[in-house]
Specification:
By secondary structure, the protein is of the alpha/beta class. It has helices at about 30-40, 50-55, 60-65, 80-85, 105-110, 120-130, 155-160, 185-200, 210-215, 345-350, 355-360; strands at about 25, 45-50, 75, 95, 115-120, 140, 175, 205, 225, 250-260, 265, 270-275, 280-285, 300-305, 305-310, 320, 335-340, 365-370. A hairpin with a 7-residue loop joins strand 15 and strand 16. Mean pLDDT is about 95; it is low at about 1-15. Bound molecules: pyridoxal-5'-phosphate (PLP). Pyridoxal-5'-phosphate binds near residues 52 and 230.
């Protein structure tokens, strides 16, 4: 059925002489390209590159390095993520999307030139205890319907009238869209209208659109947009004509090949039974690497020039695929788990999740290669 010759020198030895050749290869030029695409779609806006959660698993330092000098600003979730970038020499402003979690972080943020999203009264109280020159630049988050973070309209009114020195000339009024990927959901228009009305009233610049907002809701484009997932090559919804390049290819080697007879099972719980004689490849990656354990039998991957399908349960360190239809499979051949040929969104759909989760949960155990 197949040529079982060992191919370790050619395939496994390619990167290093020892160790597990399970890699996420990250194309930084694709991220630069995607940033330019998204920035061009909103020519009147500045565009923040969102690189929280280690740039959705792509390596925040490397991604920031590749976008340095191109982007207007970066955003991360919290101060620890931002400090790592400053210490790596990133000079641009960095917005903290969740603001600060301790009062003293405000002083640090000022020193490091981080922009701080204030979304709750307690953060505003911390800020008002500081001298003007100790305060970082702040952005104000308004809740327009996401109901996760953000001041109410009344709280905004209260704080702007009671603390007239709260805002600086570079402060921005922000909100976040709850359904930007739903191209016909009128809730988006409601959120857009509410933020714009407040911004007009207080004469402030706005920031609202994420990747899907940039693509689907031109009216959501603000003075600043915040592009995350699209940087990495994925648009929402997936059928949109976004013209992006997938940045990450996750691949792992075949470490065993077995012919399974009709009626035999593969993997834990014997959940998958061969319906005919089949060739099964065991691949060196599993849920401890961030491959989703809930990926069902039938989840696609790619080998040589063909789509192959998962059989049996996902193990901690291994996956099993039916490769009966593939010619000349050898030990050491690299299987693409996601990348150009099989999108991470397809894999996510088979595991009951979304691309964001799979990318951001790719574990440090997987060696990253940036090129
Ligand atoms: C993560 C995040 C973004 C980026 O969203 P994408 O859908 O990845 O483009 C934008 N704004 C806020 C507040 C976020 O938390």
């Amino acid at each position: 059925m197949t040529n079982l010759a060992i191919n370790t020198d050619k395939q496994m030895g390619k990167k290093s002489a020892s160790g597990r050749p399970t890699y996420a290869t990250i194309d930084l030029s694709a991220i630069q390209f995607n940033y330019a695409q998204m920035a061009n779609k909103a020519g009147h806006s500045k565009t923040i590159a969102v690189i929280k959660a280690d740039a959705y698993g792509h390596g925040a330092k490397q991604v920031a390095g590749a976008l340095n000098g191109i982007v207007d600003a970066f955003a991360v979730a919290f101060i620890d993520e931002a400090i790592v970038l400053r210490e790596a020499g990133i000079k641009q402003p960095i917005l903290l999307l969740e603001g600060v979690m301790h009062a003293h972080e405000l002083v640090l943020a000022q020193r490091y030139n981080f922009w701080v999203m204030l979304h709750s009264d307690y953060q505003i109280e911390w800020l008002t205890t500081l001298e003007q020159q100790q305060r970082p630049i702040i952005w104000l988050k308004i809740d327009t319907g996401m109901h996760r973070l953000g001041l109410t309209v009344e709280a905004l009114e209260y704080c702007l009238s009671n603390y007239p020195t709260l805002l600086q000339s570079t402060s921005v009024l922000c909100s976040h869209l709850a359904c930007a990927d739903e191209t016909d959901n009128a809730f988006n228009l409601q959120q857009i209208a509410q933020l714009k009305q407040l911004a007009n009233h207080y004469c402030l610049p706005i920031s609202l659109a994420n990747s899907a907002g940039i693509d689907n809701w031109p009216a959501s484009h603000g003075d600043w947009n915040r592009v995350g997932i699209a940087l990495y090559g994925y648009a929402q919804p997936h059928n949109s004509q976004a013209n992006l390049r997938v940045a990450m290819r996750l691949h792992a080697p075949i470490i065993a090949l077995k012919t399974i007879k009709k009626g035999e099972s593969v993997g834990y719980g014997r959940s998958w039974i061969a319906q005919k004689d089949q060739l099964i490849a065991t691949v060196a990656i599993g849920y401890a690497d961030g491959y989703p354990r809930h990926a069902a039998a039938g989840t696609p991957a790619f080998l040589h020039t063909q789509t192959i399908y998962l059989v049996g349960r996902v193990s901690m360190d291994m996956l099993t695929f039916d490769v009966s239809q593939v010619n000349e499979v050898q030990i050491g051949d690299q299987v693409e788990l996601w990348g150009d040929n099989v999108s991470v969104e397809r894999v996510a759909a088979h595991a009951g999740t979304i691309a964001y989760e799979l990318l951001s949960r790719l574990s440090p155990r997987v060696t990253r290669i940036w090129r």
